[in-house]
């Protein structure tokens, strides 16, 4: 017996979910490079620096010791203890290690959303949030940020309704680079307490804050901790994207629920990769701080070049610029068409703003070598 339309056998859920619009660039750019196209990628958000030597060495040593077996599904005890030690009042039972904070976020929505539950998400926002909420049966509710990319606190307040389950805050922000100041986060915390909401803080870029601005985490607000689920990643901070190690910090019952799901999904995160993460936490900050200073210099360089072509808000964190390219769109052209035109004509890959819920913009990753940044902006300028 043959199935005549295997497509129809796919669940509605998977048929309606869109693939990651950022991650799709990884195979796309690999294919272009294999074809010999001189591509400059300012698309995917990834540090350019090597994974630090102590992390590589610790991972190799773990392999030599044959740390290649199943491990605790919540994560290595040593890793959870080291992470918990960085957050006042937090114990290993509050930490769950995931295959990157992407999986942590996916798991959070699975654990908190019932069908029809709403999650408020400021937009523009990272491409996976809305799809992850939908995959959990929830409904994303988008609230536009203001022209300076800061939170529209009135808009968020007005969006809270009977079905609101959570508010998601991503600071430093992907794709805008905005860093939300303490008073804005305090307002979010108060709103959550008042309406009994969960707060999800995606802090994947917490280390990447420039201009000596304070790095303020929602975790510092004690009043919100009992309802806060925070995610961070080793990917960006320690240049470990391929290791796939991130984590969530959550109240004990939420952490336990996430481990229950993990027990049916992946079990533990790669054991020897977690040993690398333990070594990352033990590192002296010096190298990473120097890398951040270098990124700030690149931010300045990229911002100068980009703002000479397009209106652009200066990002205070993460490693993205999010310029307004609407003045350069051809008649009827979307930011997706624009990014495709730039890729076709210049070989420079950038991500359309519409993928983050804001047309007329593009996301440009400035974590790239100086010569590539300069070459990319020269090529784009020529096309414009
Ligand atoms: N988070 C990075 C980005 O936005 C990596 C790709 C992804 O996982 O979305 O480019």
Describe this structure in words.
The chain is α/β, with parallel strands linked by helices and 384 residues long. It folds into two domains: 146 residues, Aspartate Aminotransferase, domain 1 (Alpha-Beta Complex), CATH 3.90.1150; 229 residues, 3-Layer(aba) Sandwich (Aspartate Aminotransferase, domain 2), CATH 3.40.640. It is built from 14 helices and twelve strands. Strands 2-8-7-6-5-3-4 form a seven-stranded mixed β-sheet, sandwiched between helices. A three-stranded antiparallel β-sheet has the order 9-12-11. It has a two-stranded parallel sheet with strand order 1-10. α8 links the parallel β5 and β6. α3 runs antiparallel to α11 and α5 runs parallel beside α6. The longest helix has 22 residues. The chain starts with 11 loop residues before the first helix and ends with a helix. 46% of the residues are buried. The site of glutamic acid has 10 residues, from loops.
Count of discrete domains: 2
The percentage of residues in β strands lies in: 5-15%
Number of DSSP strand runs: 12
**Which overall shape is indicated by the principal axes computed on the Cα atoms?**
globular
Give the overall pLDDT as a whole number.
Answer: 96
CATH architecture of the largest domain: 3-Layer(aba) Sandwich
Low-pLDDT parts are: none
Q: Write the CATH homologous superfamily of the largest domain.
A: Type I PLP-dependent aspartate aminotransferase-like (Major domain)
What is the N-to-C order of secondary-structure elements (H for helix, E for strand)? HHEHHEHEHEHEHEEHEHHHEHEEEH
Number of H/I helices:
14
Helix share, percent: 40-55%
| Rg calc | 21 Å
Major beta-sheet overview: 7 strands, mixed
| Secondary-structure-derived class | alpha/beta
At the first level of CATH, what is the class of the largest domain?
Alpha Beta
Q: Which ligands are bound?
A: glutamic acid
Q: How far from one another are the termini?
A: 57 Å
CATH topology description of the largest domain = Aspartate Aminotransferase, domain 2
Strands in their spatial order, largest beta sheet: 2-8-7-6-5-3-4
């Amino acid at each position: 017996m043959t199935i005549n339309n295997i497509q129809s056998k796919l669940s509605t859920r998977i048929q309606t979910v869109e693939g990651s619009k950022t991650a799709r660039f990884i195979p796309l750019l690999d294919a272009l490079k294999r074809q010999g196209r001189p591509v400059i990628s300012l698309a995917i958000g990834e540090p350019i620096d090597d994974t630090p030597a102590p992390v590589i060495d610790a991972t190799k040593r773990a392999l030599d010791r044959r740390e290649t077996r199943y491990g605790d599904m919540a994560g290595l005890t040593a890793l959870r203890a080291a992470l918990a030690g960085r957050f006042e009042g937090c114990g290993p039972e509050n930490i769950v290690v995931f295959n990157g904070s992407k999986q942590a976020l996916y798991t959070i929505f699975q654990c908190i959303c019932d069908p029809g539950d709403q999650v408020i998400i400021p937009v523009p926002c990272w491409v996976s949030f809305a799809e992850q909420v939908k995959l959990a049966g929830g409904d994303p509710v988008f609230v536009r940020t203001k022209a300076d990319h800061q939170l529209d606190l009135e808009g968020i307040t007005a969006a809270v309704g009977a079905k609101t389950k959570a508010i998601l805050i991503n600071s430093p922000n992907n794709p805008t680079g905005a860093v939300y100041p303490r008073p804005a986060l305090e307002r979010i915390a108060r709103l959550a307490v008042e309406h009994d909401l969960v707060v999800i803080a995606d802090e994947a870029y917490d280390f990447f804050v420039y201009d000596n601005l304070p790095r303020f985490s929602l975790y510092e607000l004690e009043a919100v901790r009992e309802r806060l689920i925070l995610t961070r990643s080793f990917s960006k901070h320690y240049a470990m994207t391929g290791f796939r190690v991130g984590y969530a910090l959550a109240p004990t019952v939420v952490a336990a629920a996430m481990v229950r799901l993990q027990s049916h999904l992946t079990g533990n995160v790669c054991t020897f990769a977690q040993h690398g993460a333990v070594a990352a936490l033990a590192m002296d900050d010096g190298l990473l701080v120097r890398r951040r200073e270098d990124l700030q210099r690149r931010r300045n360089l990229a911002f100068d070049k980009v703002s000479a072509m397009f209106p652009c808000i200066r990002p205070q964190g993460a490693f993205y610029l999010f310029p307004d390219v609407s003045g350069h769109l051809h008649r009827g052209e979307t930011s997706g068409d624009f990014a495709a035109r730039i890729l076709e004509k210049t070989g420079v890959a950038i991500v359309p703003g519409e993928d983050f819920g804001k047309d007329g913009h593009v996301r440009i990753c400035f974590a790239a070598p100086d010569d590539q940044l300069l070459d990319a902006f020269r090529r784009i300028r020529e096309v414009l």
